[in-house]
Amino acid sequence: MGLRIKLIGFLLLFGLVILSGFLWANQYVLQQTILHYVDQRDQQRLERLKNNFESYLQSEGLHSLNELDEMRWRRLLLLSHRVDLSQNPERLLGMINRESKRRLPDLDEFEQRVGLSDAQGQRLYGPEIDQASLHLPLYAEQQLLGHLSFQPQQSLTEQADIEFARSQFMLLVLGAFLITVLILLVLWPLANHLLLPIRQLNQSLHQLAGGKYQTRIAVNRQDEFGALQRNFNHLAATLEAALASRNQWVADISHELRTPLTILKGSLDALQDGIRPLNAQALDTLQQEVELLQRLIEDLYQLSLSDVGALQYQMAPLDFAALLQSCLNNFQTKAEKKGLRLALCTPLPPGGAWIEGDAKRLSQLLGNLLNNAIAYTDPQPTEPVAEIQVRLEAQGKVWRLSIEDCPPGVSASELAQLGERFFRTDPSRNRRSGGAGLGLAMVRKIVQAHQGQWQIGASILGGLSVQIHLPKQEDL
What we know:
This protein has 476 residues and is α+β, with helices and mostly antiparallel strands. The chain is built from ten helices and eleven strands. It has three domains: 148 residues, no CATH class; 85 residues, Helix Hairpins (Orthogonal Bundle), CATH 1.10.287; 160 residues, Heat Shock Protein 90 (2-Layer Sandwich), CATH 3.30.565.
């Protein structure tokens, strides 16, 4: 069964339940209203009968209802149907006491429910007296002679009343049928309106599952379905970008691994063929290529662990200032060999720069940044010594580390791509010191793991500026 049929069926069933309850309530109210009307009508007849009865008793001078025979009782009932004779008692006496052999009409439904009892409560004429009966006292010369008893209706009994109630119910049923048809006419296009985006989404999901990541849905609604359409398009774009990134990742890995392997194979072939002598210089060349290959594989392994969340971090309070000083000391010699000066431009905080972090991973972060700064900075002919400036400062709730180097710089279009895997600028920063373009990608992962932020921009010295913001320990 389709969703449209289910939706229409559910809404229709819900409407029918409400409509049935409405019909039942209206029928109940109608019955009670008609019963109330009939009771009011009967009360008027009963009052008229009581007045006629008391006028007759007064005119006849009767002191006991036992003196009233059944014939006169029936005539009183019949005459009091529509006529009030209390203002003309002589006429009343003449109509009741006259002799007639003509058979009296049968009592109607109201008259059959009226009874007469004496002052002691003994029934004289009419139906049996029960607890539901109404009692109207009968007086003559201020003396209680008896009671008129009357049984109210519990349901409609007269054919006219029943026909009226039935006709009203049929009108309600006809109205309910017309409303149901109108609801169906409204629900069908409404169901199409609600289900059309679901169908589109279902078809698009089938295409997406088949590998067609370029699939998009036209966003033409502003409700929740429109949000669903936008989310689907975002998902498709993300999957498409992930597929392109995976393909590029495989291609880049293949390229990066092929280069040192090709050099190794060429060098070994040359040694085997005797083209190159097997000496210390040849072995040193092979050793460098092996180290390059080993470093590349290790970087790939670490970055893959970070991507899947398996890279382990052992967080503990540490002095980031002391860790920075130790790393600067380790890279001083390398900077001096290249003719660069690695300068700490601001004094370290006297109380230390305490953060919550992993000393090993942060050492890796600092090593990558300092190694890149040294590798990608050229000595300046116009300056005695090219500088790499390092600063560690408190900035609000974070510690800000900035590393700025000298030319060559990076173009504005390339700045946004720094930090992506295997990306290297060209030509000034291309493959210097065997870099595979994974160092900054690893830095980005480590900063994120420490709940920090990083920024890359142009340096005032003409090179690259990298800023790292790490939360202070008390603000974690």
